[in-house]
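Researcher: Please translate sequence to C-alpha cells.
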Amino acid sequence: QVQLLESGGGLVQAGGSLRLSCAASGRTGSSYGMGWFLQAPGNEREIVAAISWTGESTYYTDSVKGRFTISRDNAKNTVYLQMNSLKPEDTAVYYCAAGGRLRNPPPVRSREYDYWGQGTQVTVSS
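Model: Translation complete:
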C-alpha cells in the first residue's frame, strides 16, 4: 500500500507560481512512477505531468510545457510540481498519483495509476 498526501495548493494571481508537494508513505513508494493530474469542475481528470520511478523520464501535457516542472526526491519519498506563469485556466483540483511500478517511461493514463492522493485546490485569479 502507498498513501499519498498533497500540499502546496492555494490562491495565486495570474503569472504567479506555486509548488505542489506529494509525500508518499510505504516502503515501495520510490519504485512507482508518479503523476500529477488536474480536474476542473464538470471535467474529467487529466494528466498534467509524470515522472518515472528513477526520475530519468518525464512527461508534460502540451498546455504546461515550459511552465511546469515535475521532480522527485526518492530519499524523501516526495514528488514536486513547480508551477510557474500560472494562468486562470490552470485552476483545478490537483491530484498526485502513483503507478507504473518500475516502468520507464511513466504511465500517462489515469487508469494506469494505482494510488491517489486526496487532491489540493489551485486557484489562479485574473
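Researcher: Any highlights?
Model: The first strand starts at residue 3 and ends at 7.
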